[in-house]
Amino acid sequence: MNDFPVRTLRIGTRSSPMALAQVDQVSALLRKHEPELGIEVVPVTTEADKWHGSLAELGGKGSFVKQIDQMVRHGEVDMAVHCLKDVPGDVPMPQGLVFAAHLERDDARDVLVFPEGSDHRTLDDLPPGAQVGSSAVRRKAQINRVRPDLNVVHLRGTVGTRLEKLDGRRKTDTPLDAMVVAVAGLRRIGLSHRGRQVFEADAMLPAVGAGVLGLECRQDDEPVARLVGRLNHDRTMTEATAERVMLHDLRGHCNSPIAGHCVTDPDGQLSLRGMVFSPDGSRLVHAHVRGGRDNDPAAMGARAAADLLRQGARDIIEGIPH
């Protein structure tokens, strides 16, 4: 333990099975660098986890991270593990906190899941009027564009809880015929085999920050920042920067039907696609920018947002009629 003081690293996290699995992943990576590192996991059931209504009433997905951020700020824990897609894009980071590392991006795509025993395999297999569960406005809008005859219903809860509702093992207001979840979410809880139709980015553009875990700590805690920084994946950080600058400039939040995904092409050029939809999918604006000579991710994000705003993204986000 030459590079880290002899103390236990306290990691704050949500208490869901997926969040705890993510902390296990981070802990294993940290111990590759510091085999004797003591780690204490501090699970928290946030206000958003307890809330069964619309997240919009609590201030959006940021409610999942807000309470844990305060614990980091106040020194109750040393660091936090956040799904980057849950971190608000329309407000700055809490004062004194930084993302010291972004782990290499997991699969960013979405996948269609059917009830246990179903013979269906794709969206096309569903009959008109079928009920498709989703936790994201972004998914609902994109499904509605290709299958306006389906009824996309809002579904809250952990991935495991949503699967129980899909399989009829947990009470729900409406029986579900299918559900869309993140590929990475299924993998992290060991249920990848439940996925049927994986949607490529061209068919369903992912959420900003999809598949990325951000490791947050206090800016002035140099030993933790230095240790955690060793896990940073430069390409993922660069791509996520482009996506999040776009989201920030659009003043987007979790209830905004915004999608954004940046990749690094084989020639090293960054390629960022962004979309803003009306919730029913009837209106859409799309931007696609490449890095150019400077290949600057922040500049790309700003260019993509400006292009979307010129096309009317603000009216779509605010729900102003066309």
From TrEMBL:
InterPro entries: HemC (IPR000860), Porphobilin_deaminase_cofac_BS (IPR022419), Porphobilin_deaminase_N (IPR022417), Porphobilinogen_deaminase_C (IPR022418), Porphobilinogen_deaminase_C_sf (IPR036803)
Gene3D superfamilies registered for this protein in UniProt: Periplasmic binding protein-like II, Porphobilinogen deaminase, C-terminal domain
PTM-bearing positions, type S-(dipyrrolylmethanemethyl)cysteine: 254
UniProt domain Porphobilinogen deaminase C-terminal: residue ranges: 238-309
Catalytic activity: 4 porphobilinogen + H2O = hydroxymethylbilane + 4 NH4(+)
Keywords for the protein's UniProt record, in alphabetical order: Porphyrin biosynthesis, Transferase
One Pfam family recorded for the sequence: Porphobil_deamC
Record pathway: Porphyrin-containing compound metabolism; protoporphyrin-IX biosynthesis; coproporphyrinogen-III from 5-aminolevulinate: step 2/4
Superkingdom of the source species: Bacteria
Domain Porphobilinogen deaminase N-terminal: 9-224
Enzyme class: transferase
Assembly description: Monomer.
Family note: Belongs to the HMBS family.
Protein name, UniProt field: Porphobilinogen deaminase
Originating species: Streptantibioticus silvisoli
Gene name, Swiss-Prot/TrEMBL: hemC
